[in-house]
Specification:
The chain is mainly β. 12% of the residues lie in helices and 36% in strands. It contains seven helices and 29 strands.
């Protein structure tokens, strides 16, 4: 026994000593997720350990050097370098220095979100040998001047609006518009707009002031007599519906308490020196189209919610706009067998929303969806765009139908004998996902015979359910199960069989005709 212990001790000593039998030295550092915006010292542990990390003796003969990496979905999320005791390290199968590289990988798939976690150990047995670095992680120049974020895969800065350059140090020249700015109380020419020229607005368009406006304010007393008229022209960041009027209380509370009221009519326009028209409340001034204007352009699985997708607020478009436009981009990866999927999307394809943009356009665009391959796996990027010509029409998913969505409620419909989804379906609405390009209705156990529970489902789908009625025999009675698929707004509201009356009739009647024919031949 004594000899065996001696041999083990001798082996440990020989593995981790230099030619003089001393303890070796190793680099020692640790860091969490690589962040190219942090100081150089913090990131040196990842890829520049020889220039920025401390080196020290292990202090005990027999220890070795190791670099440990934890990688989550291809991103290094932790690194640890230092001296390790082979008797208590990650490799329980040996008390010697383990193989140079050992990795363990696990896959978790909760809430339809697969996460791959790999832990790699790189072991070595010489002075300061634990220098292995990650691949492809780059820092950016001077932390992007705190005016952007660093893409550490390329080493390029992604600058905030208003800045450019490799380090985001270059300020983009701001854009200003010029508007007529005056008040009729102090400028007698403000109403005619002849004695006042346009001047630059105080704020740039990026800071919000990209519209000119004209307001005409009339004040009435309790007897409805016009007491004052004031015209005001200026700059604004808030577009108002053109030539619209609003009743308000006077700013002076004494006038308000005396029963005075104000009527304010406003025109807004986009472009320098455009506020020459005075609103009159008669809608004689030319008006622009109003559209939903918003964008969410940095969506992913970590930030999947788009406020723009459900935005219904419409604002005035620039002069020259004739259409509203909506564009959506998303990733899609279809599944051959969807029966195994689970989570929020249920039996749906792999999907990730990337961007939603709504705004104004000066020309129509054909409603369509196009797709391009992404990477080497089964993924594609789909872009859908559509324009329309009425105020606020660019809601919902572009180039996709709105569908009636309901299902027979067995808890109430069967008891009271009235199926609202079958007989009085709701109005069509936008589908939950932009890849759902079809409306479907599924009518189960349709029969002219009483006593059979009929079940209607109307919904959105990304796959066809066909356009066919198939018979089934229940209790000696022939029942029809009818599917209907369509691609236009609200097309799944009707009765499935009504689209194919002859087919439905033949399916029910044909068995009886065949039986009668057989009996006739036999007789």
């Amino acid at each position: 026994m004594f000899l065996k212990l001696f041999l083990i001790g001798f082996c440990l000593l020989s593995y981790s000593t230099d030619v003089y039998g001393q303890a070796i030295t190793c680099y020692s550092c640790s860091a969490s997720t690589f962040n190219a915006m942090l100081s150089t010292d913090t990131n040196n542990c990842f890829n520049s350990v020889t220039t920025g990390s401390a080196s020290g003796s292990c202090g005990v003969a027999g220890f070795y050097c190791r670099s440990q990496f934890i990688i989550t979905d291809g991103v290094v999320t932790s690194i640890n370098r230092g001296c390790v005791n082979p008797a208590t390290d990650h490799d329980a199968s040996t008390t010697s220095v383990p193989p140079a590289t050992q990795c363990t990988a696990t896959l978790t798939n909760g809430a339809n979100n697969p996460v791959d976690t790999t832990t790699c150990y790189h072991s070595c047995n010489s002075n300061n040998c634990n220098t292995i670095s990650t691949n492809g992680l780059q820092t950016c120049a001077v932390n992007c001047t705190n005016r952007g974020v660093c893409d550490y895969f390329s080493g390029n800065c992604v600058c905030q609006p208003g800045f450019s350059g490799s380090d985001c140090s270059t300020s983009t020249a701001p854009t200003y518009i010029s508007c007529i700015q005056c008040n009729g109380l102090t400028d007698t020419g403000c109403e005619s707009a002849t004695s006042t020229s346009a001047t630059q607005c105080p704020l740039s368009t990026a800071d919000g002031q990209k519209y000119c406006y004209t307001s005409k304010i009339e004040t009435y007393d309790r007897a409805d007599a016009l007491k004052e008229t004031v015209v005001v022209r200026g700059c604004t960041g808030t577009p108002q519906r053109q030539d619209e009027c609003t009743f308000t209380s006077p700013v002076d509370t004494q006038l308000g308490n005396a029963g005075f009221t104000e009527l304010t009519c406003t025109n807004t326009c986009e472009g320098s020196n455009c506020n020459t028209v005075i609103p009159d409340g008669l809608h004689t001034a030319a008006r622009n189209i109003y559209c939903v204007q918003c964008e969410d352009v940095n969506l992913n699985s970590a930030s999947p919610t788009s406020t723009c997708a459900g935005n219904l607020a419409r604002t005035q478009c620039p002069t020259g706009s004739t259409h509203c436009i909506s564009t959506v981009e998303y990733y899609l990866s279809d599944r051959v067998d969807r029966s195994y999927t689970y989570g929020v999307q249920g039996t749906s394809p792999g999907y990730e929303l990337r961007s939603v943009v709504r705004g104004c356009a000066s020309a129509p665009v054909t409603a369509a969806c196009t797709s391009t391959s992404v990477g080497n796996l089964n993924a594609k990027k789909v872009t859908c765009t559509e324009t329309c010509q009425t105020d606020g029409c660019n809601t919902g998913w572009p180039a996709r139908p709105i569908c009636t969505q309901c299902s027979t409620d067995f808890a109430t419909d069967i008891q009271d004998g009235y199926d609202s989804c079958l007989n009085n379906p709701p109005e069509p609405t936008s589908c939950a996902f932009p890849y759902q390009g079809m409306c479907v209705s599924i009518d189960r156990q349709r029969s002219v015979l009483r006593g059979h529970t009929r079940h209607m489902t109307r919904s959105c789908s990304d796959v066809t359910v066909g356009n066919v009625c198939t018979p089934s025999v229940v209790g000696g009675a022939t029942l029809l199960n009818c599917n209907y698929t369509c691609t236009t707004d609200g097309c799944n509201q009707g009765f499935n069989g009504s689209n194919r009356p002859i087919q439905g009739m033949l399916v029910i009647v044909m068995p009886f005709l065949l039986n009668a024919l057989v009996q006739f031949i036999l007789v």
